[in-house]
Each structure stands twice: as structure tokens, then as C-alpha cells.
């Protein structure tokens, strides 16, 4: 038979999804597993959002709508961006998507030609480089390790740019590190982005979960509105992971292209999810604030429980992940003689021996660390930390 798509076969599967799937299967098989692998809030979808979806179903709002999404929902997104972020968009510049991951795909598909380079600060979310490669582009990684607080600066960006550079893909706050760019840091990056005449894809899906600084959108600075595609969604902020609803906010010419892509590829996201998102946009932020307070408490707990590590983790400034350095333990052996050569070995042995699922840093472009998601109950966090500490202290 003829060969399948090389472009598709050459991209890697998501390791975070694979680990979460493996952990769930082990639990289904009756094994005692604690999973801190998935970035999924452990709170339920708020009642006003559920009610908005149910009302839409009962009102028969289940027919095809515009490929870019329902107008009232897009108007509400534009209003949110103006009131909360100081960004000015018409509803025609908002495209509703099947989650923020879909929004990232749309943005890259609108920009990339074969051979274009996309700068990605590392550590990075696992999906970014694979989508760039899938679309024929070349990911260019700029290292931002723990010694740099997991952030790049304007000079790093300048050095990484070439005549083939098309865009930078910025995740702020960052998954997996929890790093948050301050307004001053973003302003310096924005000046360089404008100077290099490149685009910026700004993934801001964790914007409400910031602890030690204020969140600023990359699109707010001079010269950035016309070159920035803002990515956001409702999965994290409103506990709607399974609803699959997000959006692109883009300059008008790019929004038009994204609308064309979506019209041919997926059409609009679920009407029910869109009306649920409208419910989220219309409700107050009490649920969000309660989650942020819970995550702040859990962050403190995780930092205290991992303080025994030879190299202490940096406090995440945002999101709900702890990116903990474990490379000091590479070369050591487990009690059954397995040598820990890197983060994948570390996490595999941890899951096999202690029933704790976390994600190896290699999945995010930094093999020195592992990622914990503390979007889990206090009970599960305590179990996880007990198992993690026991595992590390048994290495010799």
C-alpha cells in the first residue's frame, strides 16, 4: 500500500496526554495510583455555566452557526478583552475554537509557510513544536532554564532571529514552569518583536492564575496589536476542560484567514459549549478567585514538601504547576537496580514503584526537571508528596 503522511507520522504524541491516559488505565485496573500529570482543575464547572448550556439546549440552539462562532459570544469575548486586558477588538476579530489548543493550531496555520522559523522559549508546552513541524515550519528553541527564572529576554530573542523567523510563540503564564513575564519584561520583548518585524502568538490561557505579579497581555504594547494573536479559553479559568472551548483574537487580516481555515476544517465549535462560555463571561469572578486562593495554598504546600531536594524548586509565579529540578539524582539507582539516566527514567520508575504519575521535563524541552500539577485535592497532593519523597530518598 502507499505510504501515509510523513508530515503527520513525524510529529510526536503528547507525553502529558499519554501519561494521564496510562495513569487512568492503571486506576481502572485496580492499581493504587495518584496522578498529578494532567493540567486539569479538580473543581466542578460552576452552576451558572451549566445552566447556560442547559438553557441553550432546551431553547433549541443546536443548529449550524457561523464558522467563526456565535456573534453574541464573540462580542462578549471582545468586551472581556477590552475591560480586563486593555485590548480593542471587533467581534469580527474573535474566532471561537474547540479549546485553546485548537486556537494555537489556527494561529500557526494562518502564519506558517514551509521553512519558516518559529521561536519557542524552552521549557515549552509539549504541543507547540509539534504543531510547528506539522505545518512545515521549524521550531527554534531559546533556552530559559532555572538559572534564568525560566524566562527569555530581549537579547535572547534578538540572537535567535534570522531572516526566516516568522513568529515567537509565547506562553504567559507558562506551562510547565509557572513563569510569568512582568510588564517591564514583556515591554522589552515587545520592542524587539516590533524591531524584528515578526508575529507574536501569545497563549494567555492561565491569565487568572498569577500569584506574585500582575498579568499583562503581550498585545497591549505599541506596535503589537497588529502583529499579535492572543490565545485564550475557558478550560482552566472556569473548569471547562471537557467542554472544549477557546478563542483566537487576531488582527483583522489574520482573523479572516483563520475564519477560512475553520470553515473548511472544523466549522464552529459546539453551540452548547459556546453558550456555556457566554455564561462564564457573564458571571462574576468569585469562582476564579476561590480557585486562585486554593492554588496559592497548594503552591506553598508543594514548595514546602519538595524543599528537601538538593536543588530547591523555584516558586511558580502563575499557572498551577511546579517544575522541580531532579537532575542531581541522575546516575543513581532504584532499590531494584534501575539506573536513573534522565527525567523519563525518573518518572517511569516513580510510577512503577510508588504509583505516582508526574511528567518528565524532557517532554517540555528541559530534561533536568519534572512537572507536578497541583490542580488536585489536598489529600492527593499529600499522598503524592509522601510517595515522591520516599522514592527520592531510596535512590542510591
TrEMBL record:
The keyword Transit peptide does not apply. Residues 31-388 form the Aminotransferase class I/classII large domain. Its EC number is 2.6.1.1. SUPFAM superfamilies: PLP-dependent transferases. GO terms for molecular function: L-aspartate:2-oxoglutarate aminotransferase activity; pyridoxal phosphate binding. It comes from the Bacteria. InterPro entries: Aminotransferase_I/II_large, AspAT/PAT-like, PyrdxlP-dep_Trfase, PyrdxlP-dep_Trfase_major, PyrdxlP-dep_Trfase_small. CDD domains: AAT_like. The keyword Transferase applies. Its cofactor is pyridoxal 5'-phosphate. Keywords: Aminotransferase, Pyridoxal phosphate, Transferase. GO terms for biological process: amino acid metabolic process. Belongs to the class-I pyridoxal-phosphate-dependent aminotransferase family. This is Aminotransferase class I and II. It comes from Fibrobacter succinogenes (strain ATCC 19169 / S85).
Amino acid at each position: 500500500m502507499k505510504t501515509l503522511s510523513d508530515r503527520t507520522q513525524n510529529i510526536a504524541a503528547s507525553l502529558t496526554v499519554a501519561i494521564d491516559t496510562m495513569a487512568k488505565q492503571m486506576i481502572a485496573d485496580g492499581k493504587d495510583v495518584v496522578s498529578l500529570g494532567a493540567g486539569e482543575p479538580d473543581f466542578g464547572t460552576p452552576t451558572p455555566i451549566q445552566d447556560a448550556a442547559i438553557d441553550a439546549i432546551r431553547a433549541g440552539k443546536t443548529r449550524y452557526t457561523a464558522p467563526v462562532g456565535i456573534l453574541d459570544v464573540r462580542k462578549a469575548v471582545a468586551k472581556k478583552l477590552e475591560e480586563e486586558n486593555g485590548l480593542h477588538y471587533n467581534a469580527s476579530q474573535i474566532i471561537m475554537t474547540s479549546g485553546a489548543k485548537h486556537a494555537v493550531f489556527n494561529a500557526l496555520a494562518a502564519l506558517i509557510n514551509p521553512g519558516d522559523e518559529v521561536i519557542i522559549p524552552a521549557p515549552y508546552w509539549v504541543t507547540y513544536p509539534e504543531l510547528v513541524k506539522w505545518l512545515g515550519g521549524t521550531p527554534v528553541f531559546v533556552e530559559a532554564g532555572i538559572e534564568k527564572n525560566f524566562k527569555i529576554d530581549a537579547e535572547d530573542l534578538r540572537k535567535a532571529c534570522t531572516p526566516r523567523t516568522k513568529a515567537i510563540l509565547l506562553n504567559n503564564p507558562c506551562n510547565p514552569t509557572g513563569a510569568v513575564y512582568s510588564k517591564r519584561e514583556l515591554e522589552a520583548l515587545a520592542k524587539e518583536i516590533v524591531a524584528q518585524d515578526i508575529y507574536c502568538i501569545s497563549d494567555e490561557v492561565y491569565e487568572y492564575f498569577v500569584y506574585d505579579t500582575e498579568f499583562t497581555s503581550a498585545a497591549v504594547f505599541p506596535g503589537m496589536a497588529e502583529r499579535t494573536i492572543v490565545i485564550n479559553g475557558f478550560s482552566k479559568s472556569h473548569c471547562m476542560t471537557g467542554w472544549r472551548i477557546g478563542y483566537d483574537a487576531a488582527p483583522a487580516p489574520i482573523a479572516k484567514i483563520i475564519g477560512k481555515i475553520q470553515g473548511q476544517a472544523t466549522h464552529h465549535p459546539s453551540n452548547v459549549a459556546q453558550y456555556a462560555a457566554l455564561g462564564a463571561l457573564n458571571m462574576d469572578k468569585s469562582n476564579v478567585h476561590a480557585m486562585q486562593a486554593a492554588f496559592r495554598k497548594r503552591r506553598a504546600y508543594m514548595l514546602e514538601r519538595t524543599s528537601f531536594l538538593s536543588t530547591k524548586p523555584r516558586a511558580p509565579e502563575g499557572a498551577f504547576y511546579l517544575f522541580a529540578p531532579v537532575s542531581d539524582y541522575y546516575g543513581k539507582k532504584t532499590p531494584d537496580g534501575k539506573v536513573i539516566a534522565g527525567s523519563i527514567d525518573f518518572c517511569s520508575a516513580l510510577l512503577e514503584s510508588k504509583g505516582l504519575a508526574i511528567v518528565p521535563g524532557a517532554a517540555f524541552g528541559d530534561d533536568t526537571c519534572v512537572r507536578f500539577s497541583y490542580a488536585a485535592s489536598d489529600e492527593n497532593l499529600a499522598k503524592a508528596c509522601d510517595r515522591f519523597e520516599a522514592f527520592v530518598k531510596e535512590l542510591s
